Amino acid sequence: MRVRWIVWLVFVLFSVLPFVAFGQEGQLQSDFRRESGNVKADCGSFSFKSFASCAQELFTDHPLHIAVGSIAPQNGFGAGLALVTHYTPNENWRLSWDADAVGSFNASWRAGVYMKAIHTPVQQIHVITASSEGATAKKSSLTVHPSTIFNLYAQTISLNKLFFFGEGPHSTLAGQSVFGMTQTIVGGSVIKPVYELPALGKLNLALLGEVNGRFVGVRGNSGESSPTIGALYDETAAPGLTSQPAFLQIGEGIRLEPNLFNNHLQLNYLVNFQQFFAPSNSTFSFRRWTIDLGHNFPLYQNSVSSGPKDSNGPDECASAVGAAKCPSVSRNRTGTVGVRLLITESAASAGSAVPFYFQPTLGGSDINGNSVLSSFQDYRFRAPNLLLLRENFEHSIWGPLGFTFAADEAKVALTRGDVDFGDLKHSFTTGLTVRAGGFPQIFLLFAWGGGEGHHTIANINTSLLGGSARPSLY
Predict the structure, then answer these.
(1) What is the radius of gyration, based on Cα positions, of the chain?
(2) b/e per residue, 90-103, with b = 16+ CB within 10 A?
(3) Does the structure show a pLDDT above 80 at 9?
């Protein structure tokens, strides 16, 4: 209960800070008047064209819009409100605040406040001209340097229906149980681009850091057809079931996102190291490192990434820092072939264990909404260690509608020595995607393979298209 009061105190603080400290009430009123005028203009008549523009206004504009998205697999579709506001104290800094709250029909909910401080110093522009008549000037290499971004956030999520089948790759469907979980995350992170050296600038290299307090509560669920988790498992089979201490979680990482061969190859490499400390019960302290290697091959020169942008909050979809509107629906041909390798390994001291609620999962979608081995049930395999190899293809069909296909080979492991390419489980997924301007991306998927039947998935992203990801729940 004390943690909830802390979250809502931080929520109120972040909400009033831009107005009390910086005198932004006039700007906010101006933003509301502008939004009111946009709503009247876009929603005042009834036609197919006005319907699309009205929906984009209601679901993406700021400072206030309707917030929608899937909360977590098995916990339904959430709807609520989001408040977004900005403040620019000087030419070197841009501040933004997001506050949102959504709930679903099974009484699951999420509420959070997210602040960004973007360092935007004025860059020196150098003009290069031909040294003499007839000489050829060098090809321009003018680029916009990425910004250093500081994040502060406080988020609570309450999920009433999560599955636990037991730990390890050999769990069975007969072991399915149900539990509920509430997690509060209070912390901050920083993204520091490194571009002083030309070689590092071309790599688009950034250093990452985070400090989080994590407060988890696990509860049983006796209202489902499957038994509650406590009826089938104890502390030995599900570490952390009987008690959940508070955690201090620290992380450091390196990210590389270069575009190579005239943008025919886009890399997204991440190496991350995290430490989870449980001061009140050190038997649950552990360390985790992650290697995530993504390779995208755009099929067309006009293909532009619509992935998360560090400068946006989860409720923002601006195409660039300072942009007032979300991008419109593109009707250009876009297509991408991708290959991804993900390895996650954890280590705990002798006598310690990784709590089951912080272990990554494979099957359906994980707790963050990422589809992995989608033909299996949600959260089907769970362990401290994971390996995933994915090949995917996505192509536009018409306007916002697209087609996707993916093949997954993956496994979980109880020990790091078992993280290898042997005995991988497989799954195939195909379906439709909808990328409509800044509206959250929609997935309608059918998955098969793997020997446990098939799985139909309908999912709406938890953030606006182009919005940054929310804090991971594991």
Answers:
(1) 23
(2) eeeebbbbbbbbbb
(3) no
